[in-house]
TrEMBL record:
Belongs to the ROK (NagC/XylR) family. This is ROK family transcriptional regulator. PANTHER family: GLUCOKINASE (PTHR18964:SF173), ROK (REPRESSOR, ORF, KINASE) FAMILY (PTHR18964). Pfam families: ROK.
Length: 349
């Protein structure tokens, strides 16, 4: 486990946040006053490819190690927040069809929240990873006034995740699938080039946000088209998967092909946020994912393009903020911890 800077030892009860990923778990501790006890990433191998039993044990190890690192007695822990990639139910049951990170049959329909709760003997509060990041972005941005505001977050990665927060709480929906913003179909006028094929998503939809604004969308839809417009481009000789991953670095250097791709992505997210404005009229629109990890000038350009592509009424434009998700690599674990803290406080009322 990586060494982390310890902020202080808690003097009251705490919750632990665990972010489960395809390669690593990330852990944090949040005390009853809302202070995080570590300032940076604390990881251990997630072992999800070894199956549910190994993965749950790795999460338990992450829990034990973060308590040791922060000198936190186990008796002070009231609850654990857990997030994983989706799709999963609102209660942490992995989809019956599996998922990218949970592709073995043993994962299909597995109750990862319940298994960790049994293993630790503590209440476990579940969110998917995009919802957790959205929740953290909201609380980090609004602070003590978080419960008075709403927000929408788009998290751009291999796919496009998202989260809708209302009055400081994530909206989960009846089946736990609220905030699946990547699969919202958007109007493509003003997004696609003349003659550009309608992008297709792995979910079966055509023209949803993820088919454009995601690494998968770049590989499957945007790059194949734009390479026909730039046939002599250096990426033309690379496998599509590798070329897609190289694109962000080229975008930072203002390469014309890369800028064409990322402009389309930003416009697609702007269309998504325009729809969100008419559904929830949020106080803030957050953008997270790989683009946030890019060079400052590039991520600011991307955020500005998203903002310019979002059609708001004058009243909405004056009331709303556009911002990048803070502390991206820690946002999942921190959001999971925020959800756990809220659950403990709510139960005590």
């Amino acid at each position: 486990m990586d060494q982390a800077e310890t902020v202080r030892t808690p003097s009251s009860w705490v919750v632990v946040g665990l972010d489960n990923g395809g390669t690593c778990n990330n852990a944090t501790v949040l005390d009853a006053t809302g202070q995080f006890l570590v300032n940076n990433l604390v990881e251990n191998p997630s072992r999800v490819l070894d199956g549910p039993e190994s993965a749950v044990e790795s999460l338990a190890q992450a829990f034990t190690s973060i308590l040791q690192l922060t000198s936190t007695p186990r008796s002070l822990v009231r609850a654990v927040g857990l997030d994983t990639p989706g799709p999963a139910s609102a209660h942490g049951v992995i989809s019956s069809k599996g998922a990218t990170n949970f592709n073995q049959v043993s994962w299909h329909g597995f109750d990862i929240r319940g298994a960790l709760e049994t293993r630790l003997g503590l209440p476990v509060i579940y969110n998917n990873d995009a919802n957790a990041a959205a929740l953290y972005a909201h609380h980090r941005h609004f602070g003590a006034a978080a419960a008075e505001h709403s927000s929408v977050a788009a998290i751009v990665g291999t796919g496009l995740g998202g989260g809708v927060v209302q009055d400081g709480k994530v909206i989960r929906g009846a089946a736990g699938m609220a905030g699946e913003l990547g699969h919202v179909q958007i109007p493509l006028h003003g997004v696609l080039d003349d003659g550009q094929p309608v992008p297709k998503c792995n979910c079966g939809f055509e023209g949803d946000v993820e088919s454009i604004a995601s690494l998968t969308g770049i590989k499957n839809n945007l790059l194949p088209y734009w390479l026909t417009r730039f046939p002599d481009h250096p990426l033309a000789g690379e496998p599509l998967g590798k070329a897609a991953k190289l694109l962000r670095g080229l975008g930072e250097k203002e390469d014309p092909l890369a800028m064409a791709v990322f402009t389309q992505q930003a416009k697609a997210i702007g269309k998504l946020f325009t729809i969100a404005a008419n559904f929830t009229d949020p106080a803030a629109y957050f953008l997270g994912g790989g683009v946030v990890e890019a060079a400052p000038h590039f991520r600011q350009w991307f955020l500005n393009t998203v903002r310019e592509s979002t059609e708001l009424r004058d009243e909405q434009a004056k009331a709303a903020t556009f911002a990048l998700v803070a502390d991206l690599d820690m946002a999942g674990a921190r959001g999971a911890a925020v959800a756990a803290l809220d659950a403990v406080v709510t139960a005590a009322r």
